[in-house]
Description:
Elements: E1 7-12, E2 15-20, E3 24-28, E4 43-49, E5 52-57, E6 74-78, E7 82-86, E8 88-93, E9 100-102, E10 113-119, E11 122-127, H1 129-141
Parallel strand pairs: 2-11
Antiparallel strand pairs: 1-2, 1-8, 3-6, 4-5, 6-7, 9-10, 10-11
Amino acid sequence: MSELGTWLHVKAAGRDLLLSTLDLREVVAPSPVAPLPGRPRGIQGVVIHQGEFLPVLDWKNLPGCKEPSTSTAALAVLRPRLGIPLERMMGMVDVLPEGWRETEVDDPAWPWAGAAGLIGGVPVALLDAERLIRLLRRFRSER
């Protein structure tokens, strides 16, 4: 895989992740999440962001993730209008084109992680916004 761009290295759901700056609108301070009655799996509720409801991801419902062990330090707002709770931001990183590998189909994160980039020799999953949205839509249709 050859990915171009800059990546935000974060910790979320107890694991290191990369977020594409192309998918990212902004990173904001967290605010209390209002739960929705009958909310679909994968969504913990909504926050008001720029005068509109913004659904917030529920990590513990995603394959390969667990409930975050620490409180939310920031909320990444993706372009597809989804809030991603972050435990920590490590900073911006560049990954060389040869530093990417496809996510293995047997990896529990495969439904939402499009690839892994090597950061300090360690593979770090890339959150694929399109895959994540497809997964959340599938969860919604399964209700």
